[in-house]
Specification:
There is one protein chain. By secondary structure, this protein is of the alpha+beta class. The chain has eleven helices and 29 strands. Strands 8-7-13-4-5-12-9-10 form an eight-stranded antiparallel beta sheet, with no helix packed on it. Strands 19, 20, 21, 22, 23 and 24 form a six-stranded antiparallel beta sheet that branches. Strands 14, 15, 16, 17 and 18 form a five-stranded antiparallel beta sheet that branches. The protein is globular, with a radius of gyration of 30 Å. It starts with 6 loop residues before the first strand and ends with a helix.
Length: about 500
């Protein structure tokens, strides 16, 4: 979207101040060379601190207080001033309508009757109904069925010219043919710099709670992929959860947004497995592969080195909470860089933290420590070598692939102990003693036993010598040993046991 415009409004809440996500998006807009119009919103609220937040915005954007437009969306105060500021400050698009057509797709959605409708910014040339166009990245040719613009509803028009933003009806039915960031052209031209394949950083399994909803889940993910270029997915089968998808996301917020959209737009109740990250593994034969799940990690004797993604983390927080936040990040293997102060109260902590440490509960703990005031943003920095191992879970001496996980070597014992304890509580008792073990390679690091169900074989006896009773108990003991030795001691693992380990 930022690639499709000349300017952007930096909207800051007068009661909340500058947040980490706001700054991240501001830097993206500055990288695109956009004109920034700083705006302070919600000035009508009694707890709005206009002078303080204005000073924060000025420090962030190097502007003067006079350039910050203070508005209220609720009462409409100064909205006309904002509209005039956009006209005065944002430069108009260049007049290039005589050049060959180049248009950027910045969003798209699927219409049941008309196929894919692409939202575009015409950079060069003109576009009208009946034109034959090519989508350059997918190399798909189609005829333009209709063009128009938004006001804010769709208004049909005859032609879209250079500098205009609107839509065109492609008539395409296959979702994969129209990609966000692609260039629309009528002849061979230089593609626009909008297309950049985004690399997912966080991976999680999405499964429908009801097995028969798998087709609806597939359809829902395909439709979300249409206007979300960053989402990637592939089919996955889990022993406990059935059929689902292994999805790649930009981060945890992206995962939560997709989960919420599938719930609201497609009424899908989902199970989400614990998120994992992409590791780069160099094997002893010199080959390098990227792995997304513990099952793909080679055995320890074939690994030369493993690299994990490290993120640059910015944490915005009031000064009063810095001590607790620093303690939390150090527990999560964070490497401290610098601290900077936006004003007398707000500080920004800069760290480098392994992505895997941010995944499960980091954000919740950060909010808890800071009474909800801290905000977080992170970006990929680089891959760095790490001491990680694959932790396998064995139940009745059988390795359960679905329960394997990737952990730091120095944390393996604690994680293994936690897993075997949770399985001990959820696994049903069997006719024989059930061994639950956590192992790295061939070395068991944590173990628990569930005692056997014992049938009372002596119930039919009455009176007589104790040796008769002893004889029956010994016979039962031999039977249980034989059951385990012959492999009849195979165990069905209930879904609750999987969920105890897998579920977020």
């Amino acid at each position: 979207s930022l690639a499709a415009v000349e300017g952007a409004i930096l909207l800051v809440d007068a009661t909340q101040g500058v947040q980490a996500q706001t700054v991240a998006n501001l830097y993206l807009a500055i990288e695109q060379g956009l004109t920034i119009v700083p705006v302070l919103n919600k000035i009508d609220l009694p707890n709005a601190d206009i002078p303080k937040i204005t000073e924060e915005i000025c420090k962030l954007t190097d502007c003067t207080p006079e350039e910050v437009v203070a508005v209220s969306g609720k009462t409409g105060k100064n909205v006309d001033t904002l509209l005039q500021a956009i006209i005065d400050r944002v430069p108009p698009p260049t007049d290039s309508k005589h050049k060959p057509l180049r248009a950027l797709i910045f969003d798209s959605y699927f219409d049941e009757y008309r196929g894919i409708v692409a939202q575009i910014r015409v950079v060069d040339g003109t576009l009208k109904a009946g034109d034959s166009v090519t989508l350059m990245f997918t190399d798909k040719k189609t005829e333009v069925l209709e063009v128009g613009y938004y006001e804010p509803k769709m208004i049909k028009t005859d032609i879209l010219e250079a500098g205009e933003i609107g839509y065109f009806v492609t008539g395409l039915k296959d979702i994969k043919d129209c990609r966000v960031g692609d260039t629309v052209a009528t002849q061979l031209v230089e593609p626009l710099r909008g297309y950049q394949e985004v690399k997912p950083m966080v991976f999680a399994g999405l499964f429908a709670k009801e097995g028969d909803e798998y087709p609806r889940l597939r359809e829902g993910i395909e439709k979300l992929k249409l206007n979300d270029a960053a989402l990637s997915y592939e089919p996955e089968h889990s022993q406990a959860l059935g059929f689902g998808f292994r999805c790649g996301f930009l981060g945890l917020l992206h995962l939560e947004v997709i989960q919420e959209r599938l719930l609201r737009e497609f009424d899908l109740d989902l199970i989400v497995t614990v998120p994992s990250v992409a590791y780069r593994v160099t094997q002893t034969d010199g080959t390098t592969t990227t792995i997304y799940s513990p099952q793909a990690l080679p055995s320890q004797d074939r690994i030369a080195s493993v690299e994990e993604p490290i993120m640059t983390v910015d944490i915005f927080s009031p000064k009063a909470y810095l001590g607790g936040i620093m303690q939390l990040v150090s527990q999560k293997r964070g490497e401290y860089l610098t601290t900077e102060y936006l004003d007398d109260n707000i500080a920004v902590l800069h760290y480098r933290v392994p992505l895997t440490s941010l995944l499960v509960d980091f954000y919740d703990k950060l909010k808890s420590i800071s009474s909800g005031y801290a905000s977080l943003n992170y970006d990929f920095y680089q891959y760095k070598s790490a001491d990680i191992v694959r932790l396998d879970v064995l139940i009745a001496d059988d390795k359960v692939e679905a329960l394997s996980s990737i952990v730091y070597e120095d944390e393996a014992f604690a994680v293994g102990k936690k897993i075997v304890n949770s399985l001990k509580e959820t696994m049903p008792r069997q006719q024989f003693v059930l061994k639950i073990q956590a192992a790295i390679g061939g070395k068991v690091i944590a173990a628990e036993r569930i005692s056997a169900l014992r049938k009372d074989v002596t119930a039919k006896l009455y009176g007589g010598d104790y040796t008769r009773k002893r004889k029956l108990l010994e016979k039962q003991k031999k039977g249980k040993k034989k059951m385990m030795a012959m492999g009849t001691g195979k165990v069905d693992i209930p879904p609750e046991a999987f969920m105890a380990v897998l579920k977020k």
